[in-house]
Amino acid sequence: MVDAAQSMTQPIRARTTRSGLRKFFERKSTIAFFMALPLMLLITIMVIYPAFYSLHLATLNKSMQRFVGFGNFTFLFKRETFWMVVQQSCFFAITAVIFKALIGFVVAHLVHNLPDKGQRKWRGMLLVPWVIPPAMSTLAWLWLFDPSYSAFNWILAQVGIGPIPWTGDASWARFSVILVNIWAGAPFFLIMYLAALKSVPEQLYEAAAIDGANWWQRIWYVTLPMMRNIIAITTLFSLIVTFANFDIVRILTAGGPLDKTHLFATWAFRIGIEGNDIPLGASISLFMVPILAIAAIFILRDINKRGNEA
Amino acid sequence: MTTVTLDKAGPSRKVRSMSRDRKWAMRWSYVFLTLFAIFFLFPPIYMFITSLKTSSEISAATNPWWVYNPTLSNYVELLTSNQFLTFFKNSALVSIFVVTLTMLISIPAAFALARMRFWGSTTLATGVFLTYLIPDTLLFIPLFKMFATFAQWTGIELINHWWVLIFVYPTLTVPFCTWIMIGYFASIPKELDEAAIVDGASWLQTLLRIFVPVALPGIIAATIFAFTVSWAQFLYPLAFTSSVDQQVLPTGIITTLIKGDVFNWGQIMTGALLGAAPPLIIYAFLMDYYISGLTAGATKG
């Protein structure tokens, strides 16, 4: 860009060249470009390039010396574990997001009903799971699920229920990872819904009350339509994060028993980093892209729509 | 529901029964909230309970929810162990550098994108948001390979050094921080910077003297976010560092305190609690900033 400015001003005398150059550097768009340059470099080198690089990696063989085209993908399609991972990832993400949204919705209403001065205290307590780094809190759950010293099983034993293999049995392990994910993620929904509830004008509820609406009608005809945007965007956000989850499953079950709880991310780690098969690992993680892209398109559409309204 | 049946009884009855209804609704709210609070809080509480126990008390099958002989030995042991202090130091250094770097990149960029139009600035703003949606689990494998190739070309080994995380974490923090800073900057009235420019201030002065002080709450929220993310990140250190002296807290606790099948749960819980302490302390003092950052990301745009 500097070259272009120089060549344009070349025929004119040297003094004007310098001032022309200076003018170029004083132009608003130039300054803005340089202010945003570090951001662009970071995104290009550390996000966009690796994203496309993983596409390239996915087409190589294990030693990364030979081009195999779609070989890795066809290999994956033939493996039973792969289809299990697809199934488990979708089941995990959808179930967890639905329960997080439901719990968030209910608790947000409960907190919203409280007198104003009590709300802060409750909100503060209910958000704690969101603040603790997931790797740390999952350790607590791992200990709560411990095969021989599980504190849950101790309580259950008091009422005469036999020990539950929280992480040992496939179905229970699936239940456990979803439970921990709900525990860690529900506060996010709670805080988003609470912010949305606060923005619903009180007059709408008064009008509904005058029209004789009961509580169910108030939620269905006033609250939900007013919160629709936030609900959509929070759900999509959470869908992305849950679908791409790594920490919880890695620490709680590491994919076991018998790969039954693997998600795309944990399986890609197992194959790509631990198993030293980088191309296959890259191919596995690329399967997250379609779902992420669909969610991203919807989020973007929603944000643009609201941008136009404003 | 009862108000409907009592309608005929006259206005005074109705008002009283409504207030009684509300009182009951309130009581039920508290009951359910308490149940949810228990659900949300018992894991950290159980961490604390376990951290006060000795190994022998943990392996004696007594009531796990009660401490019979509380002791601080787990804390003393961890806080005097060089290994644990190294993890803590690595985590702290990485987080401080990442927060600084994030702010240096995202504040000027957000200012440029919110106030100074240039070719492609709207596309870039959308692009920043899209990058925020790309998860770390998609990038760790290509990044791992990129670092290995980089070492082959230049001889500088990036894998297995804690400082490599300083360059990796901004991919997680910068897009979100830029995005919420664009929102905060856009909400500042245009007259303010126009007046400054008319008075002869340069763009940089406008940013430093006007936008940064006015948008300080937003900057604090973004800082807290960046710190929390870099403190909690688990996948990148797990993939990129392996030596004990290069680990950060989350991976350090898991790889060193869990030795084979021997789980020293008292120490693991203590380590996890100490690791969770910095974000919790920040949260306790700056809850409102924390929440505003959380909600701003999705509600402003």
What features would you describe in this structure?
The complex is a heterodimer of chains A (310) and B (301). Chain A is mostly helical and 310 residues long. Chain A has two domains: 2-57; 74-309, MetI-like fold. Helices cover 77% and strands 0% of the residues of chain A. Chain A is built from 16 helices and no strands. The model of chain A is unreliable at 1-13 (pLDDT under 50). Chain B contains 16 helices and two strands. Chain B has two domains: 2-51; 73-299, MetI-like (MetI-like fold), CATH 1.10.3720. By secondary structure, chain B is an all-alpha fold. Chain B has helices at residues 2-6, 11-51, 55-59, 73-79, 82-115, 121-133, 136-154, 164-168, 170-186, 190-198, 203-214, 216-232, 235-240, 249-257, 265-285, 287-299; strands at residues 258-259, 262-263. Chain B has a two-stranded antiparallel sheet. Chains A and B meet through helix 3, helix 5, helix 6, helix 7 and helix 8 of A and helix 2, helix 5, helix 6, helix 7 and helix 9 of B.
Major interchain interface with per-chain residue totals = A-B, 98 and 96 residues
Q: Strands across the major sheet of chain B, in which order?
A: 1-2
Uncertain segments of chain A: 1-13
Derived structural class of chain A: mainly alpha
- Identify the CATH class of the largest domain in chain A: Mainly Alpha
